[in-house]
Amino acid sequence: MITRDELIAFVYHEARLLDEQRFDEWLDLFAPDGRYWMPLEYAQTDRRLTASLMDDDLFLLRLRVERLKGNRTYSQKPRSRCHHLLQQPQVDAFDAESGHYRVWTAMHYVETRQDQQDLYAAWATHDLTTVDGALRIRMKRVDLVNCDAAFGSIQLFL
Amino acid sequence: MNYRDDPAALGALVRDAEVHRDVYTDPDVFTLEMERLFAHTWIYVGHDSQVPKVGDYFGTTIGAQPVLMVRHDDATVHVLYNRCPHKGTRITTETCGNTGRFFRCPYHAWSFRTDGSPAALPLPSGYQNEAFATSQAAQGLTLVRHVHNYRGFVFAKMSDAGPGFADYFGDSLSSIDNMVDRSPAGRLEVAGGVLRYMHNCNWKMLVENQTDTCHPMVAHMSSAGTAIDLWKQAGEQNPKPMAVEIYAPFMSPYEFYEKMGIRTWDNGHGHTGVHHSIHSNYSAVPGYFDQMVAAYGEARAKAILDENRHNTIYFPNLMVKGPIQLLRLFKPLAVDRTLVESWTFRLVDAPDFMLERTLVYNRLINAPTSVVGHDDVEMYERAQEGLRSDGNKWVSLHRLFEPGEAALSVDNGTTERQMRNQYRAWARYMAVSP
After folding, report:
1. How confident is the model at residue B406 (pLDDT cuts 50, 70, 90)?
2. I need a labelling partner for A80 at 20 to 30 A (CA). Which of A99, B307, B308, B328 fits?
3. Would the pTM of this model clear 0.95, i.e. be above it?
4. Does the beta-carbon distance from B359 to A50 stay under 8 Å?
């Protein structure tokens, strides 16, 4: 039986895995059909005929993670680091019967590489479900406050 | 070096098969590019589908100049300098929108028709003086005088000097033709949203990279190579995921790119993918070919779809991908700062899936979150840093160089001839004082 506290702890744990660059463990948090979506437009609803900054299934997420490890991944020589600062996650939907949970989290995210430090502000919406009793991500939606601004490279994960 | 007053020094920056690092690093050269190159050549402004209705406007830049594109009440598209003639206030209130029949400055309510001509200003009795009547302020919004709408693609030239539109582009317009012809209705519409990616490098590095066919299998091994590895590990399931279909051709061997071919035209234009390209083997979209046959007949439909040009450079700062209806505009912000805008188009009357695939390509390759983009930016920014070195002040463009080479040619697809072609045009337009 999932509790609200577990949902909140899950979101904190996910951010910690990213900050500690434990990307393989992070991928394990996704359901087999899980996705990571970063819209391009404010309050975007369509993913198909409207562009997005990211709209990754597990194959594309794994590609990013494997690429980060690569010997010839020159944009990661030296490596980037990241830091998530989360507000207390808020449980927006809790439906134990259908196994659908939604958690909303405001955050500041810092990504650094060499002398460069970039700050992003965003809201994360986690649609969670259970797979074999464990919480898993069906959809992690990350809405950047300035989603339609021009950005430099964002190489890790908000 | 004072390049402004020393034409010989400016001319000496470009050799037959080498360019001096100052073309990428010297702020004065950048200023001269804005004054000369971007004034005397035809620069892409936008697509007329962005301003379909009378009064629709879109704000952008030509080189360093803020401009707007607007649909006038006679249905023509005008390009205006985007500043009120009074105090200089930007006249558009948003990036794009509809202004009705008039632009009204939000500062003092001076208003103008959508061809720039003055319409009204408050308290006009205060302007009953000769000095105002003869000033530029009384003339209204300043028009960019040379504007050409080619099948929806709006280009402008700021200076009276420089070639006419048809002379400037010549046969290179065939790449735009192919992109438009791929619509059964013969029309395109901007769709899906623009991806904007900031680069800390000179704009010309991006333009050169569009016809650089010797980097994908090296620089993109980390991304495209990993995509292929993961797909193989997964057992090469069928159908091939769209992401693999898009990424995998980047890892094609040198021979693929050699046989692809490069065509060059006068004035710095040219394209890769004369015979085939990374876009040649995308899976067929159900229903689309039948629509094309209905619109054009079978022979013509096949001819249109068999043309799979890879990247076409419209010198100086536009790249067009006809087969997937995508363009990239390399906007120079400073000598070491460039904004890349990647725009996508819907083929009017074609299946939605065509746009969907184009958007996936744009996201996977051109977004600030794109692993392929990360590979490329790293190389540009390393070059911007490395070019500060005094140990060697020249950039090599020697690959498959032939002395006395002409502008018009079709060549081995790994040549750096198109880059040399761009710099010949660059030197010519930079030599002209405004």
Report:
1. confident
2. B328
3. yes
4. yes
